[in-house]
């Protein structure tokens, strides 16, 4: 969509951090078609960044290493979030020029689209001077996606139900890790569909992430990646993030994580590798 010249006002910036499911336990599909989840969530110091300026219409501009992977039309969650917020609050002629700096890989299990939508709700809450509290923004976001309420808060929390039941947790000590994606986009819907097909004993409830086996069925490279990470002496077994295909391994300190990332990229130059600090994030 065409972006008209923005009104000459300072822009508002919002950080959209990567969402990390430290644990993700998924139940059987319910009558409403959704799966109950129970997940402890933290956020990384790495993510996308969004810039908001007043304008006469709603438009989205993209930049960054993964910009070409993101649609710019009405189907984009950022645009949907902007329009839903305007509709909910009675803004008849909403306008904003949104610039999304896309640094997270798309469909990778770390909540990129949901984090961007949540950042849009927070950013427009400021730009449009709505003064809505975070719980109200989370309720609006829940209409667009199950992960968006957690991403609105972007702090240590537990999410249950479809994701709309949020329990804020005391800040946990931060951890240093390495996020790695083997260059695969994986549909969340496809992973849940495969999860439904697997016998309960094959989903392995003992895993930190109930979706791991289902994702590996669709993309065996995830199993290979986990094996590689576990050979690097992480602090605990490597785990898959969300519905995949990104995986996470924790290490003792930043220097160790950066060395691991450097070594992985030398061996696998097509992989996406990012050292991160996880925890102690907050949008306040």
TrEMBL record:
<dbReference type="GO" id="GO:0005524">
    <property type="term" value="F:ATP binding"/>
</dbReference>
<dbReference type="InterPro" id="IPR004424">
    <property type="entry name" value="IspE"/>
</dbReference>
<dbReference type="GO" id="GO:0050515">
    <property type="term" value="F:4-(cytidine 5'-diphospho)-2-C-methyl-D-erythritol kinase activity"/>
</dbReference>
<keyword id="KW-0067">ATP-binding</keyword>
<feature type="domain" description="GHMP kinase N-terminal">
    <location>
        <begin position="76"/>
        <end position="154"/>
    </location>
</feature>
<dbReference type="GO" id="GO:0016114">
    <property type="term" value="P:terpenoid biosynthetic process"/>
</dbReference>
<dbReference type="InterPro" id="IPR014721">
    <property type="entry name" value="Ribsml_uS5_D2-typ_fold_subgr"/>
</dbReference>
<dbReference type="InterPro" id="IPR036554">
    <property type="entry name" value="GHMP_kinase_C_sf"/>
</dbReference>
<dbReference type="InterPro" id="IPR006204">
    <property type="entry name" value="GHMP_kinase_N_dom"/>
</dbReference>
<keyword id="KW-0808">Transferase</keyword>
<dbReference type="Pfam" id="PF00288">
    <property type="entry name" value="GHMP_kinases_N"/>
</dbReference>
<dbReference type="InterPro" id="IPR013750">
    <property type="entry name" value="GHMP_kinase_C_dom"/>
</dbReference>
<keyword id="KW-0547">Nucleotide-binding</keyword>
<keyword id="KW-0418">Kinase</keyword>
<protein>
    <recommendedName>
        <fullName>4-(cytidine 5'-diphospho)-2-C-methyl-D-erythritol kinase</fullName>
        <ecNumber>2.7.1.148</ecNumber>
    </recommendedName>
</protein>
<dbReference type="Pfam" id="PF08544">
    <property type="entry name" value="GHMP_kinases_C"/>
</dbReference>
<dbReference type="InterPro" id="IPR020568">
    <property type="entry name" value="Ribosomal_Su5_D2-typ_SF"/>
</dbReference>
<comment type="similarity">
    <text>Belongs to the GHMP kinase family. IspE subfamily.</text>
</comment>
<feature type="domain" description="GHMP kinase C-terminal">
    <location>
        <begin position="211"/>
        <end position="264"/>
    </location>
</feature>
């Amino acid at each position: 969509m065409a972006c008209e010249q923005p009104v000459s006002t300072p822009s508002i910036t919002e950080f959209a951090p990567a969402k990390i499911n430290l644990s993700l336990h998924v139940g059987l599909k319910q009558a409403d078609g959704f799966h109950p989840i129970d997940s402890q969530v933290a956020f990384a110091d790495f993510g996308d960044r969004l810039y908001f300026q007043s304008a006469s219409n709603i438009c989205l501009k993209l930049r960054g290493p993964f910009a070409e992977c993101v649609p710019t039309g009405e189907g984009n969650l950022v645009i949907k979030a902007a329009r839903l917020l305007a509709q909910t609050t009675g803004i008849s002629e909403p306008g904003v020029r949104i610039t999304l700096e896309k640094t997270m890989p798309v469909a990778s299990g770390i909540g990129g689209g949901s984090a961007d939508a949540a950042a849009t709700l927070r950013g427009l809450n400021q730009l449009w001077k709505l003064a809505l509290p975070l719980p109200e923004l989370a309720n609006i976001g829940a209409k667009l996606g199950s992960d968006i309420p957690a991403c609105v808060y972007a702090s240590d929390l537990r999410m249950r139900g479809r994701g709309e039941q949020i329990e804020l947790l005391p800040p946990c000590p931060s951890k240093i890790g390495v996020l790695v994606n083997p260059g695969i986009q994986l549909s969340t819907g496809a992973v849940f569909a495969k999860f439904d097909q697997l016998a309960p004993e094959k989903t392995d409830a003992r895993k930190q992430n109930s979706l791991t086996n289902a994702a590996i069925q669709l993309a065996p490279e995830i199993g290979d990646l986990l094996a590689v990470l576990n050979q690097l002496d992480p602090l605990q077994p490597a785990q898959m993030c969300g519905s995949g295909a990104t995986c996470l391994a924790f290490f003792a300190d930043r220097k160790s994580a950066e060395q691991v990332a450097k070594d992985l990229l030398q061996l696998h130059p097509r992989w996406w590798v990012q050292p991160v600090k996880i925890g102690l994030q907050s949008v306040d």
